[in-house]
Amino acid sequence: MPLMAGLMQRFAVQRPFEGLAIAACLHITAETAMMVRLLRAGGAAVSLAASNPLSTQDDIAAALAARYGTAVFARAGVDRRGYYRHIEQALAKGPDLVIDDGGDLVNTLHTRSTALLPGVRGGCESTTTGVIRLRRMAAEGALAFPVIAANDTAAKRLVEGTCGTGQSAIDGILRATNTLLAGKTVVVAGFGASGRGVAERVRGLGAQVIVTEVDPVRALDASLRGFRVLPMTDAAPLGEVFVTATGNRDVIAAEHMSQMRDGAILANAGHFDVEIDVRALENLATAVYQDVRPHVDAYDLGDGRTVLLLAEGRVVNLVAAEGHPPEVMDLAFGIEALALAWLAGNTDKLEVGVHDVPADIDAEAARLVLAAAGTSIDALTADQQAYLESWRIGS
Amino acid sequence: MSADQLPFQVADLSLASFGRKEIQLAEHEMPGLMAVRAEYAPSQPLRGAKITGSLHMTVQTAVLIETLTALGAQVRWASCNIFSTQDHAAAAVAVGPDGTPDDPRGIPVFAWKGETLEEYWRCTELALTWPGDGGPNMILDDGGDATLFVHKGAEYEQAGGVPSPAEDDPEEWVIILDRLRNSLADHPGKWTKAAKNIKGVTEETTTGVHRLYEMANTGTLLFPAINVNDSVTKSKFDNKYGCRHSLIDGIKRGTDVLIGGKVAVVCGYGDVGKGCAESLRGQGARVIVTEIDPICALQAAMDGYQVATLEDVVTGADIFVTATGNRDVITAGHMSRMKHQAIVGNIGHFDNEIDMTGLARTPGVRRTNIKPQVDEWTFPDGRAIIVLSEGRLLNLGNATGHPSFVMSNSFTNQVIAQVELFTKPDEYEVAVHTLPKHLDEKVARLHLDALGVRLTTLTKEQADYIGVTVDGPYKPEHYRY
Q1: Pick the catalytic residue: B54, B86, B137, B229?
Q2: What is the pTM for the complete model shown?
């Protein structure tokens, strides 16, 4: 993780979080451990809860607590109540800054731990799902502090969504099922950065890909890239593998699942387990055989057809594989750490609401990643810069 | 002066300087031929060869012709298709690199775009007729027309005359018989003598190769033949990479439609179909393949293409391409059900893959010519489809066929095959031969430098380990590449 390693040295000198308490809600993985160390190098006291009950790697959690002095509240497979209790525990000390991944921590702050709100100066949100929630909160006037939407920068969309999710969602499907994708019809719901990454890569493996979309611009993009675009109702009877990457709920619903072919595989690459309506699948099924392989549940539809649900409909790339490769999280966390450091010095100037990552932070992160990889790029000459800034010179 | 006495016959000599410029550009893109020139010109292996060529008279063919002459051959040329001559290339070949339109010093070439069938066979006969009424001692053929003419001439000379055509014989066969009848009357014994002198033929295409094997099987083949078509560096490259290049070129020149987002149906997933599907997908089309062969169909499916029957997808697709080598693949019935403004074209060798006769006979259909090789056919309900090149090879009709680099592979095989047959007559009995694999590999090798390819060399130990020599051949004969 060359970007974070470089930032570690920079933060150790600049100490942007000196004296600040940071509460974070993140997937408990090796990359998150690196993030925690980076925040601590910058001077922060860090407390940490898991952002998903299934993604916690207990060895990492233990190492963070034992070796890096972090207040960690996470255990793999914890139930819903335990999950939220962990978040409340991570918040208990009263954070100055928060980092969230999906919005559950910020939501808890605004609903159950409201007493702590006055002390919070700002935060970062890592995922698109979380940002959607935050914007709704801000629109309703419910949000109490400025938050930077660290999910959505140009560099991150490319590397994390398209490359990271694109690669790891397929990794999760393959590890769970070992199915050959060549020749299969794969339905990808959503053609955002992640969906596009899945669709392009799965096509590279020889699958026929059908894309479903609600956004006409993205649908047009998919179509012009040679993907078949259909409504889910029409795609459901055709697909052999379904991957959801929309950020929305009930994308695969009862009406779709009842149409599916025998052996259809359902996987979700979106953040929450709402994209596939698992309860509806349970209602359709006459019998459920859990863990026919690890992370594969077989739903017998009672008419000779069986549908396979991966990772209980939760994010397949984290549950059935190892989540994003470290390079992706290096950039994502690097941007988030740079943004949080910038926020720490500017909380007075920022209004309450959701803010984008300043473009120069994104550029700085990309520049550091390129430099670490030994890639040099061109710099604008003074003449070129002047040309771009002028409007008088035409043809 | 009768046409038969002209030293050459082309459309317009004033096109020669344009042709020469295009030839010079092509030479850069034909590194195999230029390398062969550099390697063989000093030893002049084709000195004494009198080669009659029957092959599309294009810019690329001009580079082939001038390679043959650089190796010492004398050459006479005709095209092997009434429409395929590029008149500026023919003019440049007639004028030659050292001549002028007023003082042409090239080779005798008899070819122009838009010959009648009578003119076509007269040109073929002129290319086969050398000064002093002799024939060639080598043939370079594409489709087998020159070889056919000599064989039929010799056959009828032996039989004592040319038979009368049957009533249902095609028009073209009647024309061939007429020409041979005149020839036998004027120059008795000419073709028997010519056949005896011919050391061999090198054949370019599947169609011509098919004829040669038939003659060999029936014992009627009169001289050795090398099947250039089945060199790996010919058929695989021509078919796949050539068509991958020229298919979308033809579609774009013909229609200028955006290919991204369109649904394209490719009929046939052989080498040509694979190239077509790849280029259409590369432009962003969603490609559907139709196949009758389960192996090719499975290949298409594993490559991620939807495989369907034409019946099932004919109403939904935007672009249709036939690449099957079979007849009646797209019928008039199919075309009548296509979307408005669907584009229909063929890239298979013959013009029978799309049933144009059936389309023309559809009640109430109306043909509107948009521009050369692009026709709109409007059905009575107002829907129209666009047919490219009247169902003939659209990559040749709407674009310029295979690019120079691909043809350099084919033609380098041709030159090497000519040298083989001419210099080693004892090694090739009267039969159809393919070029030995080490020469196929040589053709490929000659094209690597131009692409910046750095080839790895086997160590002696590695070569021994896989049972080959360090210099090749590297693969067994049955290897499929």
Answers
A1: B229
A2: 0.80
